[in-house]
Amino acid sequence: xxxxxxLASNPFLKFVQENFTILYEEAVKNEWILCIPSANSVCNxxxxxxxxxxxxxxxxxxxxxxxxxxxxxxxxxxxKFGSTSVRILFQETIYTKLGKVRALCIHKDDPNxxxxxxxxxxxxxxxxxxxxxxxxxxxxxxKSDQDFTAAEKLKQCLDEVKNYISSLDRRISSCVVHNLYxxxxxxxxxxxxxxxxxxxxxxxxxxxxxxxxLKLPEEFSSCLDLALSELERLPDKKLVADKLxxxxxxxxxxxxxxxxxxxxxxxxxxxxxxxxxxxxVTNWAAQLDFIKFFHTSxxxxxxxxxxxxxxxxxxxxxxxxxxxTLPKNVPDTPLFRGAxxxxxxxxxxxxxxxxxxxxxxxxxxxxxxxxxxxxIGADSRGWTALHYATYYGxxxxxxxxxxxxxxxxxxTADPQGRTALHWAAFRGFQTCLLLxxxxxxxxxxxxDLQGNTxxxxxxxxxxxxxxxxxxxxxxxxxxxxxxxxxNGNGDTxxxxxARWGYTSIVQLLLQWEVDCRIFNKHKQTAxxxxxxxxxxxxxxxxxxxxxxxxxxxxxxGRFWTGLTRQLSLRRKPIPLNPIE
Length: 580
Fold this sequence. Notes:
Elements: H1 11-19, H2 21-30, E1 33-37, H3 49-54, E2 56-60, E3 63-66, E4 71-74, E5 78-81, E6 84-96, E7 99-108, H4 121-144, H5 151-166, H6 170-179, H7 181-191, H8 193-205, H9 221-231, H10 240-255, H11 265-278, H12 284-293, H13 302-318, H14 334-340, H15 344-352, H16 385-391, H17 395-401, H18 420-427, H19 430-437, H20 454-460, H21 464-476, H22 493-499, H23 503-511, H24 526-529, H25 533-546
Parallel strand pairs: 1-7
Antiparallel strand pairs: 1-2, 2-3, 3-4, 4-5, 5-6, 6-7
Helix pairs in contact: 4-5, 4-6, 7-12, 9-10, 9-11, 11-13, 12-13, 14-15, 14-16, 15-17, 16-17, 16-18, 18-19, 18-20, 19-21, 20-21, 20-22, 22-23, 23-25
Protein name: VPS9 domain-containing protein
GO cellular component, one term: tubular endosome
Pfam families: Ank, Ank_2, VPS9
């Protein structure tokens, strides 16, 4: 036999037996065929439920299908899944307490490399030498410029790395990229930082979009959660092939719906854009550049289609095609519609007309307006007219409202705990925000139900103008704005700015001497959550020059006293939680 393997120690089989016991027992009971990838052709980090179901085959009435409903053709030495063909290395029967299961050990052919089971001594030396060469180029670049922001030097370094890696054998180049993934991704993330920051701002400002806004059938909603979960795994993969495989699984999951018609290109583009919009990944442009930069295969095929699809989805988002500007679901009353649509004439007529004998919104019989609501009343969603005016950025309408009893009600909160000031900051309307700030009783440090202040929300959505307005107003008005306030996750404004890559906002916050050593609930500083080495270095340099003492994260129950704790530049896995 040309190939032999002890299946009892195969990592895929062990993974199935340990993590999918019920599914494995069902396979034995129903006499399904278990396809086991050879041990030297898989990595443990690509195993998940979808991958397992892809490798279980049911046979019924002469037809064979995987548990993911893909048709399978079985011959003596090959399996064919759609356009993918794999070799059957050998067959074996696995006996269990419940019965037996037929197993096929399979191996996918690699058209771009020789069938070598493990690197030879010569290849290992070549890998070590190549890693050393690339590492020297990256290290020299980092040392050549203190803030390493010179675009020309960065491009020169990236070109040198790319040209060298592309000249290597595919197997060796993959090893080099895998071993130097963090350093290489750092370089590309710096290069794509501006594009990613703008993209993140668009994504954050459209985070409340719903599937129905895309005008797609609701049947697609059944597959979105699984597809989103798979897509968010892409940044954790270190090899281009693994990233593309993750994208391939995402697209496959989007096609597994109850929609009677096929998923056309336009729908796929809209759905993938929607998933990127909803994901917590903060460097999509860098991820795309990494794939394009280090995709060394000359045979693009399906890979080329996946790369083009991802690029089209990101470009679709850059155009801000999801932007919702027209008011929706506004109560059909003059007050709310006037505020939501910024109709100052209608509001002025309604609020200040002399025809009212008692007060502008009196409902007594003598005024003849029994259906007009009270001025400070809220609609079914808990919003007042002031909420609507500031949410849609109508500064003139906001000014009209603030000349009435609304000026004493600026702290009225909706069910989310958000005041009009929160929504002005969240949406990025600086004029509305400043009008509210100048009202007596407006608390700039007021928190919503998730612990977010107006500063948190302005930073989260990348609204630098609103961040400046809050900082400058508090200084001029001698109001003590809490720059270091922590939300429900323990994140400060600096945490949010660093996480989403808003370099200019980070610089602005550091000018106000925010505390860069605060730990959130996950024991992470702003440096830890940053995915951009440029921002990490910027914050670390500030801390070294005069950062304050270490503080405790929100609700963590312990007080951190390590005044000499050193900030690490290593980016740890970040358990990002959506902040709506």
